Amino acid sequence: MPVSRREFLEKSAAVAAAGFVPRLPEAFDLTSHPIGIGSGPLVLPSRARPCVVSSSNGIRGVKVAFDRIVAGEDPLDAVIAGVNIQELDPDDQSVGLGGLPNEEGVVQLDASCMHGPTRRAGSVAAIEDIATPSLVAKAVMDYTDHIMLVGAGAKKFAKAMGFKEQNLLTDKTRQDWLRWKARLNANDAWLDHDDDVKIKFTTGTINMNAVTATGDLASVTTTSGMAWKVPGRIGDSPIIGAGQYCDNLVGAAGSTGRGEANIKTCASFLIVEFMRGGLAPQAACLKALERVVAMTETRLMGPNGRPKFDLEFYAVAKDGTFGGATLYSGGKFAVCDERGARLEEAAFLLRR
Ligand code: GLY
């Protein structure tokens, strides 16, 4: 049910290598899942198990989103409410307020979303001074004939829609940025100071996906992107099919981690397509990671022929089955279903 611009504003105001052959971990048996590989097209369930899946930083948000979908709220509104918690948390340095800035000390945010029942999508990239780009992405979806707005145009649109302009650089992120800058030398090489301050580098992000009891799906991803990035750099998060993807007939998927590796594989779309072909969510995430490794350029391969970065995928199918997988072992993802909110071990492609 479409909402009026006024209703939207009121609601929004309430939240503010060559030769490398990737192998599956010995412990993971793709054929053990009930759906299995190559068992044909997904059979649509008449009812689904409601479920919300996200990156681990969404542990608070999955509970909020789950409670909302169980209460009958639209799945996209629910997951956006879930990620708003991180966007507005100044201590989460990977997203929204307090997100780490670009090399000039400016916070530039990316976000995108998809609404399964209506097959619509919205996105903003490199938007400044607006803490909740996920809501701006939804506003692009709801109130324009477009899907993606970037930079100054995205900010102008957000302000016209009533979003509050604010400085997103906190004292802490400003200090981190100054310390990072202090490590640059005249030749633009990085000095390695022996101090006790850890300079953060992050491609952290939050992705959240949900399915309701009636099998309706939604997905959202929001981020401050790669820390210290070149101004104007856009990652995978605002790219429909990379940062997140949702098809109401099949499932939803999303990503965190090195966006450049994900953009080349459109992995969220790929995961949904693997699920359409019959793979379970976790198996689909692992298979997409195989593609990421196969598409990795030599300069990003370590001496052992393994990627020097990490990437994480999360997925939920229309029947409420879910999964998460990371390139390297040790990752977790957040989930909330009838068993409550919890972190689960992610499957992995390569042992750390
Ligand atoms: N995945 C977030 C980014 O690379 O921007």
Walk me through this protein's architecture.
With 352 residues, the protein is of the alpha+beta class. The protein has one domain: (Glycosyl)asparaginase (Glutamine Phosphoribosylpyrophosphate, subunit 1, domain 1, 4-Layer Sandwich). It is 27% helix and 22% strand. It is built from 9 helices and 13 strands. The protein has an 8-stranded mixed sheet. Helix 2 packs antiparallel against helix 3 and helix 8 packs across helix 9. The protein is globular and about 55 Å long. The site of glycine has 12 residues, from strand 8.
List keywords for this structure.
352 residues, 5-stranded mixed β-sheet, 13 strands, alpha+beta, 8-stranded mixed β-sheet, Glutamine Phosphoribosylpyrophosphate, subunit 1, domain 1, binds glycine
Alpha-carbon Rg, integer: 20 Å
Q: How large a portion of the residues is in β-strands, by DSSP E? A: 15-25%
Number of domains: 1
Largest sheet: 8 strands, mixed
Derived structural class: alpha+beta
Task: Give the helix/strand layout.
Elements: H1 5-13, E1 51-55, H2 59-70, H3 75-87, E2 109-115, E3 120-127, H4 133-143, E4 148-150, H5 151-160, H6 171-182, E5 206-211, E6 217-223, E7 244-247, E8 251-257, H7 259-263, H8 267-276, H9 281-294, E9 311-317, E10 322-328, E11 332-337, E12 340-345, E13 347-350
Parallel strand pairs: 3-4, 10-13
Antiparallel strand pairs: 1-5, 1-11, 2-3, 2-6, 5-6, 7-8, 8-9, 9-10, 11-12
Glycine binds at residues 203, 205, 223, 225-226, 235-237, 256-259.
